[in-house]
Amino acid sequence: MPKRQDLKSILIIGSGPIIIGQACEFDYSGTQALRSLREDGIETVLINSNPATIMTDPSMADHVYLLPLNTKSIIQILKEHPQIDAVLPTMGGQTALNLCIEADEKGIWKDFGVEIIGVDIDAINITEDREKFRHLMLDIGIPMAPQATATSFLKGKEIAQEFGFPLIIRASFTLGGEGASFVYKEEDFDELLTRGLEVSPIHEVMIDKALIGWKEYELELLRDSNDNVVIICSIENMDPIGIHTGDSITVAPAMTLSDKTYQKMRDMAIHMMRSIGDFAGGCNVQFAVSPDEKEEIIAIEINPRVSRSSALASKATGYPIAKIAAKLAMGYHLDELQNQITKSTSALFEPTLDYVIVKIPRWNFDKFEGSDRTLGLQMKSVGEVMGIGRSFQEALHKATQSLEIKRNGLGADGKENKKYDEIIEKLTNASWDRVFIIYDAIAMGIPLSRIHEITKIDMWFLKQYEELHLLKNEIATFKIDTLNRELLLEAKQKGYGDRQIAHMLGCLESEVYNKREELGVNRVYKLVDTCAAEFEAKTPYYYSTFESDMEVNGKRYTDNESVVSDKKKIIVLGSGPNRIGQGIEFDYCCVHGVLAAAECGYETIMINCNPETVSTDFDTADKLYFEPVFWEHIYDIIKHEKPEGVIVQLGGQTALKLAEKLSRYGIKILGTSYEALDLAEDRGLFSNLLKENNIPYPQFDIATTADEAAAIAEVLDFPILVRPSYVLGGQGMKIVINKEELEKHVVSLLSQMPGNQLLLDHYLEGAIEAEADAICDGENVYIIGIMEHIEPCGIHSGDSNATLPPFNLGELILEQIREYTKTIALALKTVGLINIQFAIKDDKVYIIEANPRASRTVPFIAKAYKEPYVNYATKVMLGEKKVTDFTFNPQLEGFAIKQPVFSFNKFPNVNKKLGPEMKSTGESILFIESLRDDQFYDLYSRRKMYLSK
């Protein structure tokens, strides 16, 4: 059946601010859905409160409402747009589903004659209500673990007595496994049961008999209204049952499943999807499989919507699940839609992978001091990376190189853990770094059987690790001059980086690179084509690998599928994995950079490794390289593509920290030069620049030892703000008020970051903090926005409520801010964006820092003022336009407030005080007409509550 003709206008509900458990994968799915609907001429109306996303860009939907996600906002929109025919709630995660259900229960959809499409409310209720779901599964013959529901403490105790330990407690109607826990011992049960009952909005928990050591799998399905079903992807969790899938290392396709069991699992998944309701769209099904020859299958849960895993599956297969799911919701059938990659086959096909993908989560435990760092049923990661390779080993290495945690891959980088007791502890209580610890355990000589016994990770994966270790040992017996081609090629095929090989051989990374060139061991690029090259792919979506030579007609060559055009081209470096301090706002900037460069006639090339984002969608840039934002990978792509230059100032600190190497290798950085970027980061040089321009800054000095810090403190006076240089998100920043605190913090920082310079600033207590973003072309400066923070100076800008325009700064202060912003932007020879932060005390404006790059606040200002500032800034970086070529016309009645959102509920025992180190995971935007607004009054009255010294 073709598209329904009665659907002319559709409302999409977004997922709101980023929190742990619900990140930018829903920006990706929502953006795809909006594009998909508009392709068919549907009017789109979007509600979402997150200003940092591409999804809420004015170009994405016909009508964008940056409003709180509640039924009051829904009613407002439906009154303004009586033409809305339907609502699509499956693209905004649990937040959108919950809001849709609430509106349904209140009769709002019925009152306005709006149909719910893409999902069935009954299906949601069945899958979220664990008791109903269990009964349905048993009715249709799908095995489940022994389970029972408790709606009271007493009932929970009775179930535990009947089942015995270990047990799993899962709270009903929650996101990211919130309230879920493994209970090994009876003495822990009461507290964990109470927490589960409290967290569940309906005060209900499901108690399962724990399936210790069972393996976990996921299948991604799509179904149309004609009941055609396709399995898009199988995903295997390397970690066994007991660790939330969002915190697990996952592999696609499934590696250790027999074909017979896989076919059985497929049939069960399709049967489950059909049984929960009659809807067209995406679905994610999770299973447990016994680790013995029987391979018994037990269903865990089913999610009748696009999910975190469907973003991963889309990037893994090249099959755009959200885009197709939106079409199915409009009434299309799978056989009527095109395969988006080949453009010649239909969407009614199951992707085939001739490569392996590995996803590794990215955690930020360092931001939650005192947090429980073990992994369990409650998700704790803030982002993820994905590696694509021809083998599991290559993909695993690429994923570890993408994490940006100062590791060069698995082992062979001098950072291995060599403490036996610590290794055993981290294997026993799954730790965030277990992916590295397994390698360290093998290197220490702990038998695979013992590692398997402790972790229950399948032997196949452990043997893959062992092979890597044995190869490392073999290479270490050579020197760079004696290493043969065969062994070097094998190391590269298994994902070892040049830096790691250099570590094994005791030489420089550049020597390994030169050796590779000399021996002809070069990267080739392969297409992600959904169909294992059985059909020609039209979409330029690549990953790199190493191949043995082939001989054809006496000529030896390797097959490189990335054809280089003769067009002028630019590369945009992406921002890598989401983390606290560097979130989705930098992906927004990268996407806009790509689109602006395309408008200027450039072929655009994107390099990024984050599977959740719009920047890694196959049709955002002209060419996508799904690769680590890691020097070796980037340099090879640059040599292959020969671009006009590289844009680094849109991808946050990830891209910025590669500027020095790009500059050293003579690669053109588009926009602000490396020298200017470095000058802004070097506190000594930057202060000299301020001094020359008569611009005030807080007294400061630089220390490299605890003794130096103590001497500086004598001069500066407490309180003192201590921070390491070259970090993002205020990492390691702290305000200290006496010598003991100073010494303790300095010693701690220097042990974590040896060789780093520490900056000691006299802290301006009680000062007001403000910041400005501007575009500069080297001659002209336009300030796009000045924001005043509601919280006083000392709380990280990312954790502050930032008000646009300022609400409490006099004209004298504003004039100083404008003058200093322009002076600094020009003095740094900025070409593109710059963000400057200020402290105001006794009517005097001090400079805290300047960052000549895109900042966290640029998307917020762009949304508040309805102006495409990143587009303008990119055209300035490319030299296509001057600032004076644009007609700026900001539109904002009243005020816009950027409100931080925290995920402290994932870490119940953590200190929630705010300070100079950023802790928020996302943000929302609040529009108010005047300062008399109750919400502003409430924020202002609480401004000093969290300030910690």
TrEMBL record:
<comment type="pathway">
    <text>Pyrimidine metabolism; UMP biosynthesis via de novo pathway; (S)-dihydroorotate from bicarbonate: step 1/3.</text>
</comment>
<feature type="domain" description="ATP-grasp">
    <location>
        <begin position="687"/>
        <end position="878"/>
    </location>
</feature>
<comment type="similarity">
    <text>Belongs to the CarB family.</text>
</comment>
<comment type="pathway">
    <text>Amino-acid biosynthesis; L-arginine biosynthesis; carbamoyl phosphate from bicarbonate: step 1/1.</text>
</comment>
<dbReference type="InterPro" id="IPR005479">
    <property type="entry name" value="CPAse_ATP-bd"/>
</dbReference>
<dbReference type="InterPro" id="IPR016185">
    <property type="entry name" value="PreATP-grasp_dom_sf"/>
</dbReference>
<comment type="function">
    <text>Large subunit of the glutamine-dependent carbamoyl phosphate synthetase (CPSase). CPSase catalyzes the formation of carbamoyl phosphate from the ammonia moiety of glutamine, carbonate, and phosphate donated by ATP, constituting the first step of 2 biosynthetic pathways, one leading to arginine and/or urea and the other to pyrimidine nucleotides.</text>
</comment>
<dbReference type="GO" id="GO:0046872">
    <property type="term" value="F:metal ion binding"/>
</dbReference>
<keyword id="KW-0436">Ligase</keyword>
<keyword id="KW-0055">Arginine biosynthesis</keyword>
<dbReference type="Pfam" id="PF02786">
    <property type="entry name" value="CPSase_L_D2"/>
</dbReference>
<dbReference type="InterPro" id="IPR058047">
    <property type="entry name" value="CPSase_preATP-grasp"/>
</dbReference>
<keyword id="KW-0464">Manganese</keyword>
<dbReference type="GO" id="GO:0006526">
    <property type="term" value="P:L-arginine biosynthetic process"/>
</dbReference>
<keyword id="KW-0547">Nucleotide-binding</keyword>
<keyword id="KW-0677">Repeat</keyword>
<dbReference type="Pfam" id="PF25596">
    <property type="entry name" value="CPSase_L_D1"/>
</dbReference>
<dbReference type="InterPro" id="IPR005480">
    <property type="entry name" value="CPSase_lsu_oligo"/>
</dbReference>
<keyword id="KW-0479">Metal-binding</keyword>
<dbReference type="InterPro" id="IPR005483">
    <property type="entry name" value="CPSase_dom"/>
</dbReference>
<comment type="subunit">
    <text>Composed of two chains; the small (or glutamine) chain promotes the hydrolysis of glutamine to ammonia, which is used by the large (or ammonia) chain to synthesize carbamoyl phosphate. Tetramer of heterodimers (alpha,beta)4.</text>
</comment>
<dbReference type="GO" id="GO:0004088">
    <property type="term" value="F:carbamoyl-phosphate synthase (glutamine-hydrolyzing) activity"/>
</dbReference>
<dbReference type="InterPro" id="IPR011761">
    <property type="entry name" value="ATP-grasp"/>
</dbReference>
<keyword id="KW-0028">Amino-acid biosynthesis</keyword>
<dbReference type="GO" id="GO:0004087">
    <property type="term" value="F:carbamoyl-phosphate synthase (ammonia) activity"/>
</dbReference>
<dbReference type="GO" id="GO:0005524">
    <property type="term" value="F:ATP binding"/>
</dbReference>
<keyword id="KW-0460">Magnesium</keyword>
<dbReference type="InterPro" id="IPR013815">
    <property type="entry name" value="ATP_grasp_subdomain_1"/>
</dbReference>
<feature type="domain" description="ATP-grasp">
    <location>
        <begin position="134"/>
        <end position="330"/>
    </location>
</feature>
<dbReference type="InterPro" id="IPR036897">
    <property type="entry name" value="CarbamoylP_synth_lsu_oligo_sf"/>
</dbReference>
<dbReference type="Pfam" id="PF02787">
    <property type="entry name" value="CPSase_L_D3"/>
</dbReference>
<dbReference type="GO" id="GO:0006221">
    <property type="term" value="P:pyrimidine nucleotide biosynthetic process"/>
</dbReference>
<protein>
    <submittedName>
        <fullName>Carbamoyl-phosphate synthase large subunit</fullName>
    </submittedName>
</protein>
<dbReference type="InterPro" id="IPR006275">
    <property type="entry name" value="CPSase_lsu"/>
</dbReference>
<dbReference type="GO" id="GO:0005737">
    <property type="term" value="C:cytoplasm"/>
</dbReference>
<dbReference type="GO" id="GO:0006541">
    <property type="term" value="P:glutamine metabolic process"/>
</dbReference>
<keyword id="KW-0665">Pyrimidine biosynthesis</keyword>
<keyword id="KW-0067">ATP-binding</keyword>
